[in-house]
Amino acid sequence: MVVNAQKSACAGYKTIYTEKITAMSKYTEFDFYDITSMLSEEDVMVRSMVRKYCSDNLMPLVAKHWEEGTFPSHIAKEMGALGLLGPGVAAQYGGAAMTAMQYGLICQEIERVDSGIRSFSSVQGSLVMYPIEEFGSEEQKNHYLPKLASGEYIGCFGLTEPDFGSDPSGMRTKCVRDGDDWVLNGQKMWITSGTISDVAIVWGRDEEGMVQGFIVDCKTPGFSAPEQEHKWSLRCSVTSELILEDVRVPEANRLPKATGLKAALSCLTQARYGISWGAVGAAQACFDEVLRYTNKRIIHGRPLSAFQLTQDKLAEMGTEITKMQLMVWRLAQMKDAGTMRPQHVSMAKRNNVAKALEIARICRSLLGANGITLEYQTGRHMCNLETVLTYEGTHEIHSLILGALFIYEKYFARTDAAVN
Predict the structure, then answer these.
(1) I need a labelling partner for 235 at 20 to 30 A (CA). Which of 208, 352, 412, 417 fits?
(2) Beta bridge partners of 217
């Protein structure tokens, strides 16, 4: 009887767990200022398509993969088939030629599921496909971009080094010309998708100190990408170290238009743009979950949402999400119009990720003990966002970027004008 009781209890728990995981896929977007009305019909269609894919295909598997620390590799070709990998890349190279607004909405919906999965798609599009399209030769574009867009190839981006994260100018990776080849030696760290990649965009300094970019075949002798394990964040994506020991790369694989660190940093601007949108999705997921929970959770005979302390937190989070939405909506308009500057992206990345993390922490608290289990998604988002706060420029680095700009434009620019 004891055994039967244990089996019955386990079956009951499994049913409850399955119901809660299924409930995660049910989602109602918080859109208090009716941002949807400011989107085009095509924008809404893209968002609806991606939202359905994320709810039906990604949400049911994400908790399991996060717990096991594995990447659901089969989704690469699924996402490729839907045009979600490098969606802004020109159609002639296999891309979907979508607008910046549509790309942002894609990132928002994917990160509503998980920051690690959005990181995979962002790296593929913004950090691998973008530099090839922007700085590559026609031969490189025609060969690599269609394979990356379809998910046949997976790529990674090697800029960060063990001793140089926020200061990429200290790069130690070397590239030395040897006849028709370049020989690369160095080490890269915290590289998304490195271990599972077919190609890597690697940055190194030549003998004259100029930063060069290369498309490296990951099967090249001397190239290795051991996985960085034991993470408690971004567990659904692969994080790696890249080791280059006398890796010989043909001149034909050098990005001919990418000279100087500015080229590498321009790729980061593209990735930070997507992160700014993705953070909205993570915040929305937590907020939606906690709204449902506080309405159903009964405390002292009343729903948790009926207490003023809870309502104050909900009001604060709803306001911040609305501000985040408006910021990225305007940022997308500027990007599509060609007026967006890197500093505009810094402001959105800095604000939206910090606010998303703050919202996740508040939601985790409102969930009580339930908030630390994978039966609910908020704790997972909270852990993931700790990484998002750090990568692609820390919160403090973006503060310095903005502070320096504001001082120059508001003080020095006026001084220069007065002198002239």
Answers:
(1) 352
(2) 199
Quick one: DSSP state of residue 1?
Answer: -
Is residue 213 within 8 Å of residue 202, measured between CB atoms? yes
This prediction has a pTM of 0.90
Distance CA 183, CA 193 (A): 23
Q: Are 168 and 291 in contact (CB under 8 A)?
A: no
3-class SS of residue 167: coil
Over pLDDT 90: what percentage of the chain?
88
Q: Which residue type occupies 205?
A: R
Which residues are catalytic, by number?
Answer: 392
CA-to-CA separations, 360 to 19, 314, 324, in angstroms, rounded: 22, 12, 14
C-alpha separations of 290 from 24, 355, 370, 405 in Å: 11, 16, 11, 38
Containing 407, the helix (H) or strand (E) segment is helix 395-407
CA–CA distance, 416 with 420 (Å, rounded to integer): 6
Residue with tokens 């790069």: 171
**What would the pLDDT profile of 296-347 be if each residue is shown by its tens digit?**
999 999 999 999 999 999 999 999 999 999 999 999 999 999 999 999 999 9
Rounded average pLDDT over 118-136: 98
Show the tokens assigned to 381: 């988002």
Cα distances from 91 to residues 9, 95, 121, in angstroms, run: 54, 5, 18
Give the bridge partners for 262, in sequence order.
none
* Strand, helix or coil for residue 160: coil
Alpha carbons 388 and 159: distance in angstroms, whole number: 17
DSSP, res 93:
G
How far, in Å, CA of 339 to CA of 255, rounded?
26
15 neighbors 306 (Cβ within 8 angstroms)? no
One DSSP character per residue, 30-72 reads: --TT-GGGGS-HHHHHHHHHHHHHIIIIIHHHHHHHHHHT---
